[in-house]
Design brief:
With 95 residues, the protein is mostly helical. The chain is built from 4 helices and no strands. It is elongated and about 50 Å long.
């Protein structure tokens, strides 16, 4: 039982920086880059990642709740799907 608690706590602690990073990255990007990348608008992604980060920080029970998992999934979707497209749009073409 102790090992399970250690794993859950490690997941909870590792999830917090993921959510904060996703929100911070969304905050620092230009608003037009989101629509140019054919993604939802910047305020929508700020709401999604902000709520996800807040849930990840405040849920003391960690990954044992479905709400915590939803917060982590929201942050990971932003990091894996939205962030690369927004970054690519802002860099421009390499040609």
């Amino acid at each position: 039982m102790l090992l399970a608690q250690v794993i859950v706590t490690a997941l909870w602690i590792a999830g917090i920086p993921v959510g904060v990073y996703a929100f911070g990255h969304a905050l620092m990007q230009r608003a037009d880059a989101f629509t140019a990348a054919d993604k939802q608008s910047k305020p929508i992604w700020l709401g999604i990642t902000g709520a996800g980060a807040l849930v990840l920080i405040l849920m003391a029970r960690g990954p044992m709740t479905i709400i915590w998992i939803a917060g982590l999934v929201a942050a990971l979707v932003y990091i894996v799907d939205v962030r690369p497209r927004v970054t690519e749009v802002q860099k421009g073409s390499s040609w």
